[in-house]
Design a protein that fits this description.
By secondary structure, the protein is of the alpha/beta class. 41% of the residues lie in helices and 15% in strands. It contains twelve helices and eight strands. Strands 3-4-5-6-7-8 form a six-stranded parallel beta sheet. Strands 1-2 form a two-stranded antiparallel ribbon. The radius of gyration is 19 Å and the shape is globular.
Length: 342
C-alpha cells in the first residue's frame, strides 16, 4: 500500500499532562482550565516537533481520558462513581447516544493553526465503548444496538475530520486482541463477531482522499492463545487501512499478528514499551523489525510506542522525561529503518 503517506514516527495520542494543566483541572475554574488546556496543547505541539514526530496530536490534554471526546460529546451516558483497574471511570449507557456537535474537529482545527503537519486524531472505537458501557435494563436493548448507534456517530466525525484536512485517524479498541483468543463469558456482552461488525461500520469511508488512513489499535498485548483464523477474520472484516499492533515484547504472537495482516494494509508497530522507564536495546528492536522485513514491505510500516502514555490523565504510565526518551528512541529506530525519508 506504499504511497505518499509516510507518517513513520507515530504515537497513540495520549501524552503525560503537564503539572500546570493538572493543577488547573483540580482547581475547578472553567475559564482557567480552558486557558491551561490551550497552552498545554500549544506546548505539546512544540514538543512533538522537537522530537521529530511525524504526527501531531493534542495529547488528549482537553480530556480526562482517551474516551472523553465521545463520552463528553454525546448524550445518553451516565457517569458512575466506579473505576476499573486502569483508573477509568465507569460510564453506563442509559439511552441510544446522540451527538451534540463535533467531537474532535474543533481541537484539530486549532492544531492545524499551530503546525504545518496535518494533525492526527485518536478516538475510542464504537465496539469498545459499547462493550464497556452497556448494562442490561438500562436503555439500549443490546450491546450491538448501542455499538451500531455509536458507529454512526463516529463515522460522521471521521468524515468531518477528513473534510477538515486530518489524514490520520486512529480508533482504539483495547479489548479486540483479547477477544481473538476467547469470547466474553457473559452472554450479554458484545461477542467477537458483533465487535467486528460494529467497528467495521465506523471505518466504512467510501471516498478516501489520497494519503488518508483510518487506523485501528486492537489492544496492547498479543496473547499466545491468538488463533490465526480469527486474526485473519479481524483484518478481513474491519477495513481499516492501518493497524497499530503491539511489537515491544518480541513474542511469536506479535510476529504472527503482523504476518496475518493482508498485503494491502499499512502497519504501525509499537516497538517500545510505554509502561516501563527502561529504554529498549536498539539492536534488539532492529532485529525484530528485520524479521518483519522478511515477509512484509517495510515501506508500508511505521513505528510507535506500544500504547498511550496517559490514557487516563491522572494515571500517567511514565514521567514526562521518560516519555520524551521513549519517543526519541522511536525516532532513532525510524531513522535506522528508513533513513531521513519521512
Amino acid at each position: 500500500m506504499a504511497d505518499t503517506f509516510n507518517y513513520r514516527i507515530d504515537h497513540h495520542g495520549s501524552l503525560v499532562r503537564p503539572a500546570e494543566l493538572t493543577a488547573a483541572r483540580a482547581a475547578g475554574d472553567a475559564e482557567a482550565l480552558k486557558e491551561a488546556e490551550l497552552q498545554a496543547v500549544k506546548d505539546a505541539v512544540v514538543l512533538q516537533r522537537k522530537l521529530r514526530s511525524t504526527v501531531v496530536t493534542d495529547g488528549d490534554f482537553p480530556r480526562e481520558d482517551f474516551r472523553g471526546a465521545v463520552l463528553d460529546g454525546v448524550s445518553g451516558f451516565r457517569r458512575t462513581g466506579e473505576t476499573d483497574a486502569d483508573g477509568l471511570t465507569r460510564w453506563v449507557a442509559e439511552s441510544l447516544p446522540k451527538a451534540n456537535g463535533p467531537l474532535l474537529a474543533d481541537w484539530t482545527a486549532r492544531l492545524t493553526e499551530l503546525t504545518v503537519i496535518a494533525p492526527k486524531a485518536s478516538l475510542p472505537s464504537p465496539a469498545y465503548l459499547a462493550a464497556t458501557t452497556f448494562q442490561p435494563g438500562h436503555g439500549p436493548s443490546s450491546a450491538r444496538e448501542l455499538g451500531e448507534a455509536l458507529a454512526e456517530i463516529l463515522l460522521a466525525e471521521i468524515q468531518l475530520l477528513v473534510a477538515e484536512g486530518v489524514r490520520l485517524i486512529q480508533l482504539n479498541n483495547p479489548l479486540l486482541l483479547g477477544q481473538l483468543a476467547t469470547d466474553p463469558a457473559d452472554p450479554g456482552a458484545l461477542s467477537f463477531a458483533d465487535a467486528l461488525a460494529v467497528d467495521a461500520l465506523a471505518v466504512r469511508l467510501d471516498d478516501r482522499p489520497e494519503g488518508v488512513r483510518i487506523g485501528l489499535a486492537p489492544g496492547p498485548v498479543a496473547s499466545a492463545a491468538i488463533d490465526r483464523a480469527r486474526a485473519e477474520q479481524l483484518y478481513g472484516e474491519i477495513a481499516a487501512d492501518r493497524w497499530i499492533l503491539p511489537f515491544d515484547q518480541g513474542t511469536p504472537a506479535e510476529l504472527a499478528l503482523v504476518r496475518a495482516l493482508p498485503e494491502d494494509r499499512d502497519f504501525c508497530l509499537g516497538v517500545v514499551d510505554a509502561t516501563v522507564p527502561e529504554l529498549e536495546d536498539i539492536d534488539t528492536v532492529m532485529a525484530r523489525l528485520d524479521a518483519v522485513g522478511e515477509f512484509k514491505d517495510l515501506e508500508d510500516g511505521a513505528v510507535a510506542p506500544s500504547r498511550g502514555f496517559a490514557d487516563v490523565a491522572s494515571r500517567p504510565l511514565l514521567s514526562s522525561e521518560q516519555q520524551r526518551r521513549k519517543i526519541e528512541l522511536v525516532e532513532t529506530v525510524a531513522r535506522y529503518v528508513w533513513g531521513n525519508e519521512f
